[in-house]
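Subject: Sanity check before I submit

Could someone independently write out the structure tokens for this chain? I want to compare against mine line by line before I put it in a report. The sequence has 334 residues.
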Amino acid sequence: MKALVYTQPNEVQWQDQPEPTLAPEEVVLRIDAVGICGSDMHAYHGHDPRRLPGLVMGHEFCGTVVETASARVPKGRRVTGNPLITCGYCDYCVQGRNNLCSNRTMVGMTRPGAYAQYMSIPAASLVDIPQDMSAVTAALTEPAATALHALNLSMRVMARPLPESRALVIGGGAIGMLAALMMRHYGCHRLTVAETNPLRRESLQQQLPEAQVIDPRSTAPTENGFDYVMDAVGSKITRQLALQAIRPGGTVMHIGLQDWASEIDMRKLTLAEITLLGTYTYTTADLRATVDLLAQNVLGDLSWVETMPLAEGARAFSALDAGQIAASKLVLVP
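---
Independent answer below. Compare away.
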């Protein structure tokens, strides 16, 4: 089979790879669509020691079962899945928080991922989708579930309900776009999105005409102006921006990991009684709930998603790196 292989920093190649073998209680999928995640771009730049050259990345997928070693999953079923391979018996798994599984591994990180014609995955990781759902829409389940999980965590601790809050999303990539669309669905009408890429700002404004879309380099978010801030970038600069923008008593959700470490304004965090949250991926329950949201079209027409052939994945990564893609999400298809 053919697969897109991470060969060295800033390089992926379309190469021949061995087809996956069928293991007990696993399935082999024909990949029908797979998204490029910000974490894949991070690895592409050589900034993720967990993803090493020689790896087939890709964990935002939709596929069709072509081989199965599970009595529960028939051939021909179209599915998405949880790329986190979890144990099912640790404290976190039995609490329903399997995103924190003590023994987790991951598709596209510790085992070959979905930038390939075929991929194997445990049957227990599969998530059903409506069989008439488009492959591109289904491939958005994983990033959308990341946004959903972050918002659900945030709403548990916010001092006032989201519809009553002034909200700021920093970053208009896939997670930022999806989070903003979900906030609108939840009734948040005082929404600002900060994005530096002019092509993405245009796309954001088209999808969120009621929101204020700004370039934070020229129009700084109002200091102490927001009840809720989501940092969907996670750089030193955006962390500082989030703490500047949040009001006393507000909630900051940190979801991006562009920079792994930096200082923040701990004095304001303490004296202004700010709630600072981190989040990691999603639970399987979040993935199932996200499929329902996508099936109900509550996130709009998804016209902001662009597609390219999987075989041209090297060009796709290069274009994303150069900021030449207007879309907040790029999905590769066979």
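---
OP: Matches mine. For the report I'm noting this point. The chain has a mean pLDDT of 95.
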